[in-house]
Amino acid sequence: MNVKITLPDGSVKEFQEGVKGIEIAQSISEGLARNALAIEVNGEIWDLSRPIAKDSSIKIFTWNDKGGKYAFWHSSAHLLAEALEILYPGVKFGIGPPIENGFYYDVDLGGKTFGDDDLAAVEKKMIELARLNNAFVRSDVPKKDAIDYFKKKGDEYKLELIEGLQDGSITFYQQGNFVDLCRGPHIPTTGPIKAVKLLNVAGAYWRGDEKNKMLTRIYGITFPKQKELEEYMYIVEEAKKRDHRKLGKELELFAFSEKVGMGLPLWLPKGTIVRERLEQFMRKAQVKAGYDPVVTPHIGSKQLYVTSGHYEKYGKDSFQPIHTPDENEEFLLKPMNCPHHCEIYKVKPRSYKDLPIRYAEFGTVYRYEQSGELHGLTRVRGFTQDDAHIFCRPDQVKAEFIAVIDLVLHVFKSLGFGNYTAQVSLRDPENKQKYIGGDELWDKAEREIQEAADERGLKTVAVKGEAAFYGPKLDFMVRDALGRSWQLGTIQVDYQLPQRFELEYVGADNQRHIPVMIHRAPFGSLERFVAVLIEHCAGNFPLWLAPEQFAVLPISEKFNAYAKSVVAKLKEIDIRGFLDDRDEKIGRKIRDAEIKKVPFMLIVGEKEVAENKVSVRKHGEGDKGSLDLMDFVNQFKADFSLPV
RNA sequence: GCUGUUGUAGCUCAGGGGUAGAGCACUUCCUUGGUAAGGAAGAGGUCGAGGGUUCAAUUCCCUUCAACAGCUCCA
Hints:
CATH class of the largest domain: Alpha Beta
Distance between the termini: 68 Å
Number of strands: 35
Largest sheet: 8 strands, mixed
Shape: globular
Structural class: alpha+beta
Radius of gyration: 31 Å
Strand order of the largest sheet: 18-22-23-30-27-26-24-25
Number of domains: 4
CATH architecture of the largest domain: 2-Layer Sandwich
Number of helices: 20
């Protein structure tokens, strides 16, 4: 019997039944066979040594394919486990999957500590084992035998995993003396794993549950060539240079103080300029989009949050109430702005003709985040949202939602964020008690969000369990320099709070109706947005945001007076900058301005004074020749001001 | 919050049971220099905080605070 194998280019080849991936690769070319790591068979990734019994479409995976890398790293995880079992007899294993960059294995070392120093020894053992070029051998195992094996071995984690599996679907993989419960696939042998780097050790809860035991998670990455490992480590180092915490310190944008308290950022003068420019940009965009700015206090009575439901949900895990001399009085630091905005809505009766009403506020909120969560400016305990709440009629929801999507996309476009992902954050249907409100309204809100996103042609990923407790969200996620994903913009449809706050409007039918509320924050928070922006542009802000747009550098003291007049003229037309009149050589002044990432250096000496010009040098680009000051300004005028 | 690592000058870091060191930054002086570091001198530290061991602790031990990595969480 022959089987028909369809290749990715659409061509069909016939092989004998039971043909293996590696044989197909060999039939195509020697080179492919040499580089092949795994095979995709009808959408499933298989080992190259697994026989193919029926007509199939296949694709051979090499290192250049994601599937190939995953098989490679998955196999590397097993190699790590094999090394650990030799070096730490009695070690128990949790799970060891491939991840985006490398792999990890969760292990229970039975109370032994394992630090960064121990990584090198394990690495060495892994390389030693890889050189043995042992095959990864797959075998089908009846559930009973699988249980017996791990019972005998005494690995309760694997036993727990097996219990959740169907009999008949259990496979083992073995390389050398190491046997693991595993679905596969794996690369043919350990040989191709040439370069090994164990990156770090961290704790991780068994099965991701805080109530379970914490295992030791060892992260690593491997490559088929030493050179590729070196390149990877170089890229990681480069990414670290973009870290907003590092740049924030170097460029004097923000700081933290132990005395003020953890997670409470202090905005330094330069950071404040960036932040305020972003605010100006957003204010302008919001005026255009029909928002009304409002201002509300930083605290609110406890009753406000009992009404909103926040107190019940977060009260005990939050900053605790503020007390006053009046025994019965309690205030909370505001964790969000919506309740205040609801009360603004309520100051007078509303007609259907008034809607939509859009209240916008740069509202500073305080949330008691777990100490281990705090991270630079991306996760803080006091931050300012570019918040707004739209109160509208049910028939206006979609149009309003779409208008907000457009605003978010305008922001991303203006700041050059090209690679964001749009995530529809839905409720976890298994865990409904986490949320307030009935099924009908939730379903409606979830549907409306998806429809609005589709209408704007957004590619979305739906994720269950990520909704806010009062409603589903459309979240815009952007990655930081180290590949960690952060939520920036967010848009949420909410049918719950208007009910809780008894918001109303009088309809055309002269009846009372409940409005729908849309929460939205295109930046998310100024703190997180600035953090991601810093990493995005590596501290080289667009000209309109740069804290210092120019530096005037006189060649010597003799030209300080002229330099001062240049600074004064630019400041007069709201261009920001400073004079470097230190007693240093021009080379030094240029170097320092370059390090500070000042976009323009205006160098003035004898020649410039005589011709009434400035010599323009652009950050990272070098000398641009000399120009009349006003010609310089006009040339870059559009870049100095807020984007439209 | 949990596990692990770290904490020495403004910054980046070295050191180590006998009360500290480098480079950069800073101050002063010399130098007036044309597109990424001119020279010299000086000043600067309860070695994160609290306790313990010791004749003696910044160094060893404990506790605590903070930062970092990951987990968990995220209105």
